[in-house]
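Thread: quick sanity check before group meeting

JM: Hey all, I'm pulling together slides for Thursday and realized we never actually wrote out the predicted structure for the chain we discussed last week. Dropping the sequence here so it's in one place. If anyone has concerns about the input, flag it before I start.
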Amino acid sequence: MKTIKNPIIRKQYLASELYRAYFKDTMIEYTQVLEYDAGEYVLQQSMEPVYLYLMVQGRCSVRASLANGKSVILQTLHAPCLIGEMELVRDVSPFTVQALEKCLMLVIPLKQCRNILLQDSYFLRRLCSDLVWKERMEALSLICTFGYPLENRLAKFILDNRQENCFYIKKVHIAESLGVSYRHVGKVLNDFIARRYLSKNKFVYTIIDEEALASLAEELKAAEVIGDI
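JM (edit): ok, ran it. Output follows.
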């Protein structure tokens, strides 16, 4: 992680419509611009959060570590979005958030600004809107889990969690995240390789036919129609 100190870049982000959709000018003096490389941790489950994050570029995975030693990927966050808003509102332990690619974050320190933000009706209205959207997306995720075959869900999982054009996640981890058996995941991955959607070199899978995977993942968007009824 590094801090972007270039005043021109900082001013550009703090003057953007996205920043002003969440924060008033009073927050500018507190806001920093941070850059995370792929693989770096934004939040860790065992650590107290320091910032409220507004991700303006990139993708992150959200993962929970369970008491039995397993780890489950809960979702993939895409910019723009807030990270750490739950920890702002309530004293809860965060899930692990890890950058999947280079991410730019506008961050506000919680220790200094928690009370200011929680008394700011402008920010709270936007926060409530975001929380409603995230709740809706979690409901749609459950619809997809019970209503669509594994090949569709696995295609979306691969596209969401890749780094560049590859992904390195173990089959057992995919199985735990998608709620299916390890053997079932292996069968579908082998089928993708046979169809030339993927290639494999040891533990690394490389995407060969992104269009085919995107077509499978696209079918999940039909669930949004149900969510809009």
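AS: nice. The chain has a mean pLDDT of 87. Residues 121-147 form the longest helix (27 residues).
JM: adding both to the slides.
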